[in-house]
Amino acid sequence: MNKNIREIIKDADKKTVTVYFVLRFLVIVSLIAQIFHQNWHNVFLCILTLILFTIPFIVDKKFKIDLPTMLEIIILLFIFSAEILGEIQNFYGIFKHWDTILHTLNGFLSAAIGFSMIDILNRTERFHIKLTPIFVSLVAFCFSMTIGVLWEFFEFGGDQLFKMDMQKDRIVQTISTVELNKEEENVPIIIDNIKTTTISYIDENNKMQEITIENGYLDLGIIDTMKDLIVNLIGAIVFSVIGYLYIENLDKYKIAEHFIPVVKE
User: Does the predicted model carry a pTM greater than 0.85?
Assistant: First the structure.
């Protein structure tokens, strides 16, 4: 481990360090297993996870920003859950709502980060413009939603350019589209109770192939994208409300202190 990283981690909270080393050990075990199976894509994900694990400590040390223990632990668990459990262990496929949980948490954490940036500026004497609590919360909300939208752009780009299927498809039994309107009018044709969908295509050997989708029609990612944005919205609203109450009454709503970074004196 790099000497600077060791020094940064040494100064961190003991609970955070414990979680860090436990998760780091699990990632290294997974890394060795993926190297053994020569799965280089997953090897890259493990290395990326180890790098991402150091970010909270670097922010704490290099930028003199004190990250609350709970926030640091949640960030570490979030990274581990998304990369190792979600991608490598296929929790996204095994557990139906795994992706939904992580996107909700992402909305909450992104709002906390946006809130803290404005709150830090509000408390800085060199910053002459002071925002009211409602505007601080609004900025936190908008920051969180922007992060959520940018991530969906990233998923869309991954699907279009590299065929990754990051925007997970799902089976639906009803479609409503103007594309099937024979009169070419702007009136949607509704098809209910779809039982099967047959896809005909030409394979790499220039032969006609068919795939039959049972129990419906394959929606190409739009439901997943909108669901992710909706739960991101919920997470953002929850923290924005908590943050607003925190500024209005610091003593009563101290739960926000566990998620709001502050500048070290």
Answer: yes
Query: Whole-angstrom Cα distance, residue 140 to residue 244?
Result: 10
Cα dist. 199→159, 193, 208, 236 in Å? 19, 18, 10, 40
User: What's the CA gap between 69 and 20, in Å, rounded?
Assistant: 12
What is the residue-wise DSSP string for 199-243?
EEEE-TTS-EEEEEEETSEEE-SHHHHHHHHHHHHHHHHHHHHHH
Structure tokens at 84: 């190792």
Inter-residue contact 104 to 46 (CB < 8 Å) = no
Strands 208-214 and 189-191, by their bridges, are unpaired
Q: Are 13 and 62 in contact (CB under 8 A)?
A: no
User: If pLDDT is split at 50, 70 and 90, which confidence band does 206 have?
Assistant: very high
Q: CA 38, CA 32: separation in Å to the nearest integer?
A: 10
CA–CA dist 74, 260 (Å, integer) = 13
pLDDT digits (tens, 9 = 90+) for 84-113: 999 999 999 899 899 999 999 999 999 999
Q: Which amino acid is at 131?
A: L
Q: What is each CA distance from 232 to 100, 152, 225, in whole angstroms? A: 9, 11, 11
Domain layout of the chain by residue ranges: 1-95, 96-167+221-265, 170-219
Cα 121 from Cα 135, distance rounded (Å): 13
